[in-house]
Amino acid sequence: MTTISVIIPAYNRATLIGATLDSVLAQTCPVSQVLVVDDGSTDNTTDVVRDYEKRSQGLIRLIPQSNAGPSVARNHGLSLCTGDFVAFLDADDLWLPTKIQKQLALLQSDPTAAGCYTQMFRFRQTLDDLGRPLTQNTLDQPGFEHVFLTMCIQSSMTLIQGNIARALQFEDQARPAEDADLLCRGSQKRHVATGSRSAHSLSAPWGSGHS
C-alpha cells in the first residue's frame, strides 16, 4: 500500500491551522501520516494542534522545536516522516479535496518523475485564479528553466517521492524561495510532472507565516 506523509511547518497560526488540518482530513485519498512541526509559536497554535492530535487516532503528530524558520521545520519533519511520497502544506494554506488523489495518480502513472506540483488559487473573500495551465506534461530541462525563472511554486503545491525529498532537504539560505529551490534541484536529477490546476488554495499572504 502506498503511504503519504504530510509535513506542516507552523508558526503562530492558531486561527488558521484548524482549517488547514481539516483540508488534509477531507482528502479523497487518505494520507498515512501528518507531522505538524511547531516552529516556536508564541500563540496557542500548539493547543489547537494537540486537540486534533488527540482526536486523530495516531494520524496527526505535533513536533515542537525552537524557532528556526520554515526550512528547518520542514527538514525536521523530513527526518521523521516515513511515507513513500511526501506532501508539504503551509499552516495558512488549504488543499482542495482531490489534491492528493490527482497528484498520486499522476506520479504512479510516471514512476520516473521526482515529483509533481499543481497550480493554485489565492483568495481572500473571493477566488482569484493565478497562473495558466502549462502546455507540457512534464518539466525536464525546459521545466527547470521555467521553475528557476518564475519562482512561483510553493511547497504546498507539491507531492514528491519520499526518498528524493529526504535526500534533497530544504536550504534555509534560499529563503523566501526555498520551495522553488528544492524543486529546481529535484528537476536537475529527474523530471517533474505537472498536475491539476485546481488542487491548492492559499488563504493568507505569502511569506507571512514565519519570523
Note down, in words, how this protein is organized.
With 211 residues, this protein is an alpha/beta fold. The chain has a single domain (4-202), classed as Spore Coat Polysaccharide Biosynthesis Protein SpsA, Chain A, CATH 3.90.550.10. It has helices at residues 17-25, 45-55, 70-80, 99-109, 141-150, 162-168, 178-189; strands at residues 4-10, 33-39, 60-65, 85-88, 93-95, 115-117, 120-123, 127-130, 138-139, 158-161, 192-194, 200-202. The strands form 2 sheets. An 8-stranded mixed β-sheet has the order 3-2-1-4-10-6-11-9, with helices on both faces. The chain has a 4-stranded mixed β-sheet with strand order 5-12-7-8. The relative contact order is 0.21.
The number of helical segments is 7
Radius of gyration: 16 Å
- For CATH, the homologous superfamily is named as Spore Coat Polysaccharide Biosynthesis Protein SpsA, Chain A
Strand order of the largest sheet: 3-2-1-4-10-6-11-9
Give the CATH level 1 class: Alpha Beta
**Corresponding CATH architecture:** Alpha-Beta Complex
Helix vs. strand class: alpha/beta
**Strands, total number:** 12
Spans of at least 5 consecutive residues with low confidence: 125-151, 197-211
Strand content: 15-25%
Give the distance, in angstroms, between the N- and C-terminal Cα atoms. Answer: 38 Å
